[in-house]
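Per your request, structure below.
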């Protein structure tokens, strides 16, 4: 049975479903789920991510983590972790650049959180020789100092969406009209988790909640405060959720999220405030990707690499640097949120950054 047919049956039996339940089914249904069944990355896929654009991205994140590790007196052993590693490109670039940091690789124990069997196989190829351990959720990560990266992971987590109506909220639901899936709004009800948002929203405003993101951020922050470490969470989004950001991407273009369940990537912008507030045990700082990469020296690194290039290779290298950092490209839309223990200075690149807790 197609995923659309099984969703229509489910709606007929149980009534309209939340966007969170719809996203979960479309992304991770074992037979038809978008991530469960394919590698969606790269030019031939549906979207391209920062690590797939240039090795410089992984180099900057790797050196940032290594400096944070040195600043915390080089704990050994420690957990080097990534959430949703995709093709394993980011971690491969990190592992290459940190070879220059004495003791880092000997102390590192590599752990990956990945739900897709297809992508686990890609990661095993890219990281052969580093003996990663895979986990289904962050709860499986060891109780040890934790140095973690997550790039475009949190945007794939299931959200619920609410539209303000008086002092209540109407939830966006997926319902059926004949054989077609349609968005519908539930009747307005008060919602305890949105009580605070009555202060900064008006009638008709849309707010999104991502409970799995908050739960994971809490678990990561708790480990970092208890055992030491740092987390770099990079994604598109803003400090506070406002507006409809639920979207589908297919073939590098926007698509109708209901048109072909399981065939398109479904995402929402990350609410960084919700992640930071879920981790009261650790400090957090937010800055934009462009500023973060510039502070870590991406331009000097780009110039170094450019010296060995010419023609098309040079042109695409220059374009990649611009794409990662320029405000009109990924530089401002993408943000970096860092978690680190109360007792230490922030990881490099985040000092005196915008929003502090
Ligand atoms: N970080 C990579 C890939 C981003 S795509 C990059 O930047 O190129 C999102 C990744 O997160 C995929 O590997 C996907 O399978 C994984 N993922 C999404 N939701 C997940 C979940 N709930 N649990 C575990 N992995 C998940």
């Amino acid at each position: 049975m197609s995923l659309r047919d099984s969703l229509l049956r489910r709606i007929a039996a149980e009534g309209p479903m939340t966007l969170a339940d719809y996203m979960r089914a479309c992304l991770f249904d074992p037979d038809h789920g978008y991530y469960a069944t394919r590698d969606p990355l790269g030019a031939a896929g549906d979207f391209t991510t920062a690590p797939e654009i240039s090795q410089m991205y992984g180099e900057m994140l790797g050196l940032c983590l290594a400096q944070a590790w040195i600043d915390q007196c080089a704990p050994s052993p420690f957990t080097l972790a990534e959430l949703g590693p995709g093709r394993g490109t980011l971690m491969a670039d990190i592992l290459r650049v940190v070879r220059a940091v004495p003791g880092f690789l000997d102390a590192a124990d590599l752990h990956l959180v990945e739900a897709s069997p297809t992508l686990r196989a890609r990661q095993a190829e890219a990281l052969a020789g580093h003996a990663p351990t895979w986990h289904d959720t962050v709860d499986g990560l060891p109780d040890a100092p934790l140095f973690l990266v997550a790039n475009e992971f949190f945007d794939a987590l299931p959200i619920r969406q609410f539209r303000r109506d008086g002092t209540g909220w109407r939830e966006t639901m997926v319902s059926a009209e004949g054989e077609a899936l349609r968005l519908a709004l539930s009747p307005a009800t008060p919602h305890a988790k949105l009580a605070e948002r009555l202060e900064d929203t008006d009638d008709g405003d849309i707010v999104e909640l991502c409970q799995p993101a908050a739960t994971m951020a809490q678990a990561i922050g708790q480990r970092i405060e208890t055992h030491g470490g740092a987390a770099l969470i990079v994604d598109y989004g803003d400090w506070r959720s406002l507006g409809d950001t639920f979207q589908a991407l297919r073939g590098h273009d926007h698509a109708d999220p209901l048109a072909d369940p399981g065939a398109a990537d479904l995402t929402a912008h990350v609410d960084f405030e919700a992640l930071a507030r879920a981790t009261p045990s650790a400090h957090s700082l937010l800055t934009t990707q462009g500023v973060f990469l510039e502070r870590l020296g991406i331009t000097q690194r780009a110039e170094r690499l450019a010296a060995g290039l010419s023609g098309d290779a040079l042109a695409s290298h220059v374009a990649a640097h611009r794409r990662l950092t320029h405000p009109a490209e990924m530089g401002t839309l993408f943000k970096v949120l860092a978690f680190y223990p109360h007792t230490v200075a922030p990881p490099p690149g985040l000092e005196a950054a915008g929003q502090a807790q």
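Residues 35-153+218-241+267-340 form a domain with the Rossmann fold fold (CATH 3.40.50.150).

Regards,
D.
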